[in-house]
Amino acid sequence: MKVYQRLGVKKRINAAANGTSIGGSIMLPEVVAAMREAGRSYVSIPELLEKAGNRIAGLAGVEACFVTNGAAAGVALSVAACMAGSSNARVHQLPDTDGMKDEVIVQRMQINFYELMIRLAGARVVSVGLANRVYTWHLEAAFSPQTAAVVDFPAYSPPTDLPLDQVIELAHDRGVPVIVDAAAEFPPFSILSHYWKAGADLTIVSGGKGLRGPQSSGLILGRKDLVEACAMSSSPNHGVGRPMKVGKEEIAGLLTAVELWSSPDFEREMFDGYRRRSDTMIEILSQVSGVRAWKGESPPASTGLAVHPDGLPFTLVEWDTERIAKSVGQVMAELWEGDPSIIVAETPSGILLHPATLEPGEAEIVAERVSAVLGP
Length: 376
What we know:
Elements: H1 2-7, E1 12-15, H2 29-38, H3 45-60, E2 64-68, H4 71-84, H5 88-93, E3 103-107, H6 115-120, E4 124-128, H7 136-142, E5 147-152, H8 164-173, E6 178-181, H9 191-198, E7 202-206, E8 218-222, H10 224-233, H11 248-261, H12 264-285, E9 291-296, E10 314-319, H13 328-337, E11 341-347, E12 350-353, H14 362-374
Parallel strand pairs: 1-11, 3-4, 3-5, 5-6, 6-7
Antiparallel strand pairs: 2-8, 7-8, 9-10, 10-12, 11-12
């Protein structure tokens, strides 16, 4: 870690989530080795993209796959593909959408930062529904001859949204493709084909979060013609996605991560490790008077946190504020400013500790630091 020391950048323990702003994830050793090997040779990037995509699609059980430089880029490229298709003229025309279908429908309560990626491709966002509910007729009325796609953001979808299966049915009845941004929903490995099997045309997954591949990598999985159109709009081709370059090292690293996770034994071992870390933190924290720590398979709906993968054993921590006179903000600040510096996630009444982002030995460090902050 001398590079960080030279710059005076403080290392932090991540007990929160695979956020981009805190470095995504720690790459698996096999991923690092594959990237190092890939960096020693020249190759045809289009050939590498095609063959790596075919390999990943086969492992995932989908029709086709394209490797990009992150899930946000995947949103922009997917929207571009739905507008320009395989027309070279239109690929070179974007983000000018004159003469193209350029409306992309998003349910109103799902509007978030990544809406910008839709507009980056040149599309116009059409939000549908009320501030607290979306009904079938809202979506039906939004379709027009200019509708290019529907984008669904599961991480921002409340229970009062129109369910995705209904969205897919209504869109497909009108010949409109559906894009699902499932950036942070991995693992399990089955998520790579989950939305495809449900009928979605394209699914986007981050390579640098739960997959533990390179942070600047991502997957677009689904319909072969649309995946091919994504490639036409992306680097090294000269479309709107030309700046969204993914290198040979990232391609090799992400492929390696997918190959590792495709083994049920590997996935089982990873989840077992997450559960052991969660159990360790609960055991240590439960010894602190006034503190309640327990395991949840996913955050409660009231947390307002983005969607986390099903089955991950999060550690939820709350405390008796009459006995421990510290707010959630104060606890988080003390952990952030302490040594070691620890990042945790906030819930309305406590904090959430994410075992999947911890390295071996860090569960004990995190639990002991939280115990010290909340203890007498």
